[in-house]
Amino acid sequence: MNATRAYLPAVALLLLAGLIPVLVAANTVLNFIVFTLIIALAAQGWNLLGGFGGQFSFGHAAFFGTGAYATAILQARYGVNAWAGFAIGIALSAAVGWMIGYLSFRSGLRGSYFALVTLAFAEVFRILANASAFTGGAAGTLVRLDMRPENFQFASRAVFVWIALALVGFVLIMTIAIGRARFGAWLAAVRENEDAARALGVDVLGVKLKAITLSAGVTGAAGALYVQYYLYLDANIAYGAWISVEALIAPIIGGIGTPLGPVIGAVTLHGLGELTKLFAGRIPGIDLVIYGALLVAAIAFAPDGIMGLLRKAQRRKDADKATDQNVTEGTL
After folding, report:
1. CA 155 to chain centre
2. What are 234-257's pLDDT values in tens digits?
3. Looking at residues 146-164, what average pLDDT do you find?
4. pLDDT at residue 1 is higher than 50
5. pLDDT by residue (tens digit) across 89-108?
6. Is the separation of the CB atoms in 58 and 204 below 8 Å?
7. pTM here?
8. Which one of 68, 114, 302, 318 is least enclosed by Cβ atoms within 10 Å?
9. pLDDT tens per residue across span 53-65
10. Bridge-based pairing state of the strands 232-233 and 141-142
11. What pairs with residue 233 in β-bridges?
């Protein structure tokens, strides 16, 4: 029963979000939802490595861009089916994650050193993609428009909302399962103290490699979905710092190391960003100001994010209820 209850918030959230395309047909709203879910998916990938494993990355764009470029190039240059290209893009992202992890963790890099190495890899990939004719160079890669389901293209944006929700939901449930499994305990042990975990018999290198491979695959799925929705990609989109920053900030705002944190953080960031644009006008960079303000506020007043605030409120409510019950029993 307790195991089932752990999944109820995730299921309820997905069901409610899935009703939005039925109730709202405005393309602006659906575009916002799809983009927010793509960011949430990338943030979930980061959270698996940074939140659960404690290995902070500044370069998840390397995985996002690899999934995106693989999917786009396979379709545009080689005529590979979009669904197959999507799966291959995820696999290649996972492989790149394993490679970066092996080179980094095998060398003993951790903390800020590991974060800077991931940032360096993302920047190298961006420069190579921008200069290479294979990726389309600065002009980018354009996927041919062919609105058929077998091409992973749909006339209705609502279908993309449901697909994005399915991916986010799958990762959400997978993350909850990992947190309750032995692998989750190993990740927590590595996050808290690698030396102590190694002394207890945990395969630290193996755990971290599994974490970064899984993290890269999830973030690569976000990149592949981005390409299928927008049908265009260039180096600054694929490997730009923007996606690394958003994938990092969303879990911090929502609640780092929690299953729902990245999703709540992504919705909060982009929701407030759009509301600010609505009331303040399309001032260039105004959304970045909001992101920065939220990050500072979270670090200063809510280091455990929105999920941490909700847990504190629930504990306070339970404590008040227990106090009232004790008072009532004492009176009787």
Report:
1. 26
2. 999 999 999 999 999 999 999 999
3. 93
4. no
5. 999 999 999 999 999 999 99
6. no
7. 0.92
8. 318
9. 999 999 999 999 9
10. antiparallel
11. 141
In one-letter notation, the amino acid at residue 310 is L
Per-residue tokens: 201:
């018999």
Q: How confident is the model over 282-291, as pLDDT tens digits?
A: 777 777 787 7
Residue keyed to tokens 């600054």: 236
Q: Which two tokens stand for residue 329?
A: 């029993």
